């Protein structure tokens, strides 16, 4: 009997093990927009964009999503918006719950002192991601090098403040976390521009006299939203302004007043300084001759 039970148990487990070994994570839908070629490591692929032919030696779905959302110049607007929304959704789902948790569980900094690291439980996914965003904002807004996140003294500080928090690597902080933040901010800016009117396009210097790149900006936001284009008076800038105002007569072609005032001030001060120096030199000559 024991032998039969053992055999029965073995026969029951084997199909389950075989089933688990065949289960694979579903392919991310982002791969529909890329040509993928298997690498020697199972489950990893090279990637080539179907829209612009940009290539990656190893394609990572998160990076490919960011590329479609903000970097690919040839992708259609529907696909771009789809992946912008996918990235925004990663953060929107948890915003309300995160804020609620942080309001309820306000703690003092001393609450984290002298905590036994071995007894600390990891933070929830929501709290981990909320602190990640605060960390990224602090690094970017304070111009702190991303490498600091792996500095032993900084790591020790964070462990003392919040032992359950797992710091991201420098690569993750400067890579996918930063890229996701850029997508979110660009989406907010585009939302504001979408509601704005009477915009002014200001340029400081220009190298392309055909104004094609200015035209791209106008088309992306909407030419009817602009009231004026302003540049300095360099020949190539003046030509670009003229091209734009001819195509869109309602956009005012104007020089930068501040730049003009700056040039006038330089001329006036330059002449004044020249007169003063000549006067001072002549005075010295007179004194030398008299003595």
UniProtKB/TrEMBL annotation:
<dbReference type="InterPro" id="IPR052035">
    <property type="entry name" value="ZnF_BED_domain_contain"/>
</dbReference>
<dbReference type="Pfam" id="PF04937">
    <property type="entry name" value="DUF659"/>
</dbReference>
<dbReference type="GO" id="GO:0005634">
    <property type="term" value="C:nucleus"/>
</dbReference>
<keyword id="KW-0479">Metal-binding</keyword>
<dbReference type="InterPro" id="IPR007021">
    <property type="entry name" value="DUF659"/>
</dbReference>
<protein>
    <recommendedName>
        <fullName>DUF659 domain-containing protein</fullName>
    </recommendedName>
</protein>
<keyword id="KW-0539">Nucleus</keyword>
<feature type="compositionally biased region" description="Basic residues">
    <location>
        <begin position="1"/>
        <end position="10"/>
    </location>
</feature>
<feature type="compositionally biased region" description="Basic and acidic residues">
    <location>
        <begin position="11"/>
        <end position="24"/>
    </location>
</feature>
<keyword id="KW-0863">Zinc-finger</keyword>
<keyword id="KW-0862">Zinc</keyword>
<feature type="region of interest" description="Disordered">
    <location>
        <begin position="1"/>
        <end position="24"/>
    </location>
</feature>
<dbReference type="GO" id="GO:0008270">
    <property type="term" value="F:zinc ion binding"/>
</dbReference>
<feature type="domain" description="DUF659">
    <location>
        <begin position="214"/>
        <end position="269"/>
    </location>
</feature>
